[in-house]
Input
Amino acid sequence: MSDKDGENENSDYQKNSLSLWGAVSLGTGVMIGAGIFALTGQVAELAKEWFVMAFLCGGVIASFSAYSYVKMAQAYPSAGGIAMFLSKAYGKGSITAIMALLMYFSMVINESLVARTFASYTNQIIPFEADWLIPVMAVGLLAFAFLVNILSNKFIQTFSFFMAFIKALGLVVLAGGGLWAAGLSFESVALTPPSDSGGDILAAIALSILAYKGFTTITNSGGEIVEPKKNVGRAIVISLAICASIYLLVTLAVGSSLTIDEIVKAKDYALAEAARPVYGSTGLTITVAFAIVATVSGVIASAFAVSRMLAMLTDMELVPHKHFGMPGGIQTHTLVYTIVFAMLLAAFFDLSRIASLGAIFYIIMDIAIHWGVLRHLRRDVEANPIILVSAIVLDVVVLAAFLWIKWLKDPVIIWASLIGISLIAVGEVLFLRKKREG
Output
């Protein structure tokens, strides 16, 4: 194995195969697919009339988080970026491996969340009685994402760009029409948070961060983007700006069409339900069609990026790797592992619990990134310590509130998170110890 900065000669990366707008389409593909379609109802359930503001606050926190990733990407662009960022901060040891795997599994969780969302929306125009068809359809989408991802980067880039354009334009048109038809009435939206629900609102903000974390998929493809030191940061900023604007418009439209109780009741397909009173059955069908486009492209883009991060960890010899007789290179194998893990989650977990696990894993990893830059790399990457400290504080506050609310309402999530983190940590420590002794 090469000990270079993760760029193993045997990995099938394709340098300069992604343009700036190809990278933007990957980032927005993941964000819009998971964010607005999968999480609107989940966030509204916690934040009530403040759900629009919760999404905006999540965007502000994501912007602070993006600062570290942009600075690191400018200094150390690579395929599998987050794994490389962690190794620069903490070395090629257990901390890097554990935190990178938390990010990996949060992204796999995101894929399963979006796949389940695809099935829930499809069920609105193709009703089926059997509940087991929801996970079956989710697994089918993940299988399709695998088939697309074994094609060339050029095809994936073109496919993602086309899908991102279609769903962004469609959401803007639907949301604008909904707002116009509702007379710009925002009875389900408030600018002032309820005085007795501060913890729930912070928890909602923590969940809304998942709607923006798709920008990290751009860093995981850094070694394949044209002029990565310049374009990775640009792609992150552009994709965050596009998604924040669309989220604001769409959440306002949902809040103008439905009451909070109606949003929560239809939380797995809230946008489709919001289209019903404004556009009728035709609007419902169109909204579901856009949801299908968004979720399909979101799963494809996420699988593309996360498999590269796992391949990077494999190249760095921080995780075990078995070929199991499969043909192809390491990145192809990690794509298979990623899709299989996502299929298992999509088959056995509901949307709320999938989203909660992903939020916990991601925010913990995010704190580790900021701390690593602040403690070890801020001079090397010329980062502002005030912004880094602000990002850490914001993450800690929303994570603490989220854990507290989940402990009160659904402690299974806390136990599942603790068990998952413990298994990852113990497994990595034992693997690295055995590797050193061998």
Q: What stands out?
A: DSSP finds 15 helices and no strands in the chain.
